[in-house]
Amino acid sequence: MTLFPMFLKLEGRACLVVGAGNVGEPKIRSLLDANANVRVVAPTATGAVVEWARAGLIAWEKRTFEASDLTGIFLTIAATASTSVNDFVFREARSRGILCNAVDDPERCDFYYPAVVRRGQLQIAISTGGQSPALAQRLRRELEMEFGEEYSEWVEELGKVREKLLSSELDSDHRKQLLHSLASRDAFEARRSESADEREKFHER
Questions:
Q1: Among residues 37, 47, 57, 94, which one has the fewest Cβ atoms lying within 10 Å of its Cβ?
Q2: With contact defined as beta carbons under 8 Å apart, do 49 and 24 qualify?
Q3: Where is the domain boundary, 128, 148, 168?
């Protein structure tokens, strides 16, 4: 099966997580990082989830899942310790056309969580279609070494330059060529060398 790769905007969208234990907690955190409107249904929760609820970051209902919990939901995650509960959540979500991920159960997933390298607005996602999360994690570690934290600031700079160029009167071909040149490895290495020189001069003062 070929997966369709995409980055999804979840800001303000209603997302449901069923389960709030050690499996559910990181899924809840990832939705919060995406500024989703997070609802959680679970009889018990980890300390972090309890604190998020107290702070008003999530809406936690302390009970078992009911099919009606899916009303108005855009995306859901089944993260309980019960295969039967996760299956129930998945079947109910699918019947309503709602995307669902049952954690660690590829057959009950409409989407998978990729291994992700994050450097500010730069995100590099790796997926094996659920076949080998271990491989995806290894590749993520390798990419983390190749793409350091300096990429975060660089991507922000590229975004500002791109915005200015798009509002300029340059012809489209020249603009495209310039944008690709600014995003090249040579441009990045030159920037990194300049930053290193500036740090060296600072320490010499």
A1: 47
A2: yes
A3: 148
Q: Which of 21-25, 46-50, 80-84, 192-196 has the lowest mean pLDDT?
A: 192-196
Predicted local confidence at residue 108, as pLDDT: 94
Q: Is residue 49 part of a domain?
A: yes
Using the predicted structure, report yes or no on whether residue 113 has a pLDDT greater than 70. yes
**Which candidate, 94, 124, 96, 88, places its Cα nearest to that of 111?**
94
- Using CA atoms, how far residue 94 sits from 2, 66, 69, 90, in Å, is 19, 15, 14, 6
Q: Identify the H or E element spanning 200.
A: helix 185-204
> Model's pTM, two decimal places?
0.79
> Which among 17, 35, 5 has a CA at the least distance from the CA of 113?
5
76 and 22: one domain? yes
Query: Is 119 found in the same domain as 166?
Result: no
Do 139 and 167 lie in a common domain? no
Asked if residue 102 belongs to a domain, the reply is yes
